[in-house]
Every structure is written in C-alpha cells, then in structure tokens.
Amino acid sequence: MHSNNFQPEQYESLWQQKTVETRSLFGDLAIPEPEIHASPNSGFRMRAEFKVWHEGDEWNYGMFEKGTSHTPYKVTEFPIASAAIQALMPRLREAMHGSDQLSRRLFQIDFLNTLHGDMLVTLLYHKKFTDEWLEKAQQLASQLDIKIIGRARKQKICTHDDWVLEALEVQNETFYYQQKEGSFTQPNAYINQGMLNWACEQAGQNNDDLLELYCGNGNFTLPLSRRFNKVLATEISKTSINSALFNCDKNDINNIEFVRMSSEDFTDALNGVRAFRRLKGVELDDYDINTVLVDPPRSGLDDGTLELISRYSRIVYISCNPETLVNNLKALEAEFKIEKLAFFDQFPYTHHVETGVVLTKR
Which residues of this protein are catalytic (predicted)? Predict the structure, then answer.
C-alpha cells in the first residue's frame, strides 16, 4: 500500500464502497445480507517489510512502486503499522547508525509484532556473519527489548527465539499462538479476532466432529476445538504443523489431530485411492464429521477438494479472494444454500476483502 492511499478520515466511505464492489461479484448467487466487519483505520498491521536504501554512510527505510526496483519511496512514517512498530522504526534506525557491523550490506528489515507485546526484527544481508555481528546484534536486542534474527545466504542467526507469541480473545477466552518468523500469519490481528469470533458463533455448540483443511498454525482450529468433540485438521507446511502442536500444548487442548497432508492427498486417502504413512494411527472412521472448515490460498479450492467438502452437511469457507470464492460457490450452489455471509477488512485502503461464508446442504 502506497502512503498516498492512506486516508483515515475517508476510511468508512472507502470501506463501504469496497463492500458494495465485493457484493457485486456474487452476481446471481442467492446471498443473504452480509455482515460487515471494519478494521481500525490505522495501527492495524502487525507485520511490515521494508527495503533498506543506503545513501553514503546513512540508510533509510524504503519501498518501491509495484514493478520497479530502482527508485525507492523513502518511508519516514508508516501509520498502518502497529503502534509498537511505528515507535520502534526510528529507534532501531538510530541505534544501528554508526555501526558498520549492523548496517553494512543490509538490504531489508522485517518487523513482526503481536497484541501480546512481542517484537521480532529480521535483518537481511548480502554478507556473511561474524562473531562481531552477533555481539552487536545481541547488544541491540537487549537495548531495544526485541528479538533479532540475522539472515544471509545459507545463514540464519537468532539472538533469541525465532518466533513471537500472540494472544487473541475469542468468545471470552484467551488463546495463545506461536508465530514463526517467515511463516504465514494473519497481518491484521484485530480483524483476525473478529473472524475467529464470527466462525465460532456460526459453528455453535456441537456433539460431533470438525474437519478443517488448510489449518495453518491452528488459527481457527484452537477456538473451534471448544465447539466440537474432536477436530481433524490438515496442513501441508511442516513449520505450521509444528507451531500448531506447540499451540495445542500452550493452550492445554487435546482433542485435535493434526495431519501434514495436502487437501488433494487427504481426498485420496478418504477415497481409498492409496494409503499414506502420515495417517498411521489416525482412524478416519472414528470421526463423526458433518462440518468442514476451509481457508484455502488465493487460488481457491480445486475440483477434488470441492467434491470432498460437498459430502458434508455444513461448510464454513474463509476466503482471501472473493473471485475464486464465487467460482467455488457456483460449483456448490446446486447442493448448498448460502446461509451466512461476512466481509472482513483485513487490508484497509486496498481492494482486498476477506470473506466468510456458511453453506448448508439443501
């Protein structure tokens, strides 16, 4: 997002316009009146990435217009970032200036912050690290009370852990999440809380089990586990699965079975096409599943996964791309009715909208 798009005084009208445009994408689909979930108009982004632009002995945070890489836009303030990131940016730059070890060959800085208060900064370099660099980085981390990771080609050095801890309030309960550096996390924690609460409200209280595909680090899985007897959740990323297991232990949750598989492979397993070692010890027949939750990538659901989820009586679909969502809904509309629809402003001042849909079997 270019800073010229940041218009907090116009936020409500911009968000309203975006919801109207998003609703129009559904065309002739029979949809209910959507619930509208606005974001804070500033300070909402918990992740930020900046190029580093060197000028003589100094450097500045920079961004580039899409499609360009030679003329940077100098970033002196970034009001969409969390208050903690905004406060840290000038302090970090001032503390690093004058240190050749920390500044030389530095080309990017990434920030990862949480509502829980953790802050992780990743410094990316075109050079190899030395013991002197690590000493300076440890001093900087202590001075600013942050965690620092140094990355260079085939090198990764941490002053502390390579993750932060998030705490989200869902249905009057606090859930703690490990968020690993470099792994996907929802960038707008305020909207994420809204999405989690919405999903739990739609799920209700159940006496059967839940299937979740694309579970990530357990973002939806943890609070929804309170709403079902058992949860079977799949995710292809090993890093995300490890975080999900950590999160279950941290939150004292023991009714979730995580399986590291793609949705395509899981479909093959359910269809008996072939056996998978990763399902060893998992008795699929022991699950009484009527509800499935999917949170796919921007490409949406493939035909096999659409066929899989159509077997269940209720689908909760979280989408980061309304266009692929609409295509998937058209494929399901003969068998399913859209009961609930919600728009979440995950990325204010952009065209992106996060969408939640609940479908029930006709």
Answer: 320 (nucleophile), 320, 354 (proton acceptor)
Rounded Cα distance, 260 and 52, in Å: 37
Known catalytic residue: 354? yes
How much is the mean pLDDT over the chain? 94
155 is in an annotated binding site: no
Q: How far apart are CA 220 and CA 246, in angstroms?
A: 15
Domain finish residue from 163, 196, 211: 163
From 248, 283, 320, 339, the catalytic residue:
320
Residue 1 pLDDT: 45
Q: Is 186 annotated as a binding residue?
A: yes
What is the sign, positive or negative, of the torsion defined by CA atoms of 86, 91, 97, 102? negative
Indicate whether 168 belongs to any domain. no
- How many Cβ atoms sit within 10 Å of the Cβ of residue 76? 9
- Decide if 77 is catalytic: no
For the whole model, what pTM was predicted? 0.94
302 and 356 housed in the same domain: yes
**Cβ-based burial of 93 (10 A; exposed 0-12, middle 13-18, buried ≥19):** middle
Q: CA 142, CA 336: separation in Å to the nearest integer?
A: 55
The verdict on whether residue 235 carries a ligand-binding annotation is: yes
Is 219 annotated in a binding site? The answer is yes
Kindly provide the b/e burial profile for residues 279-307, where b requires at least 16 CB atoms within 10 angstroms of the residue's own CB.
beeeeeeebebbbbbbbbeeebbeeebbe
CA distances from 97 to 54, 87, 122, 228 (A): 11, 17, 16, 53
> 179 in a domain, yes or no?
no
